[in-house]
Amino acid sequence: MLLIFLEAMLALALFLGLIWWTMFSGRKRGELRTRDDGSPDAPSPPEEDT
């Protein structure tokens, strides 16, 4: 019975560790910003003085 309990706790710890790792291993500054139409917000090219 103790072995089954330890195995269940190990499985739970691995599951929670995987969830924690996937939640907090993303981009350093968060998600990319999106425009209103849903496409990613690309940096605008520099404007030329003419």
Can you walk through the features of this model?
By secondary structure, this protein is mostly helical. The protein has one helix spanning 2-24.
How many helices? The count is 1
What is the oligomeric state here?
Answer: single chain
Q: Low-confidence parts, pLDDT < 50 over ≥5 residues?
A: none
**3D shape:** rod-shaped
- What share of the residues does DSSP label as strand, in percent? under 5%
What average pLDDT do the residues reach? 78
For the largest beta-sheet, the strand count, sense and barrel status come to: none
What is the radius of gyration?
A: 22 Å
Q: What is the number of beta strands?
A: 0
Helix and strand string, N-terminal first?
Answer: H
Structural class by sheet pairing and helices: mainly alpha
Helix residue percentage:
40-55%
First-to-last CA distance: 80 Å
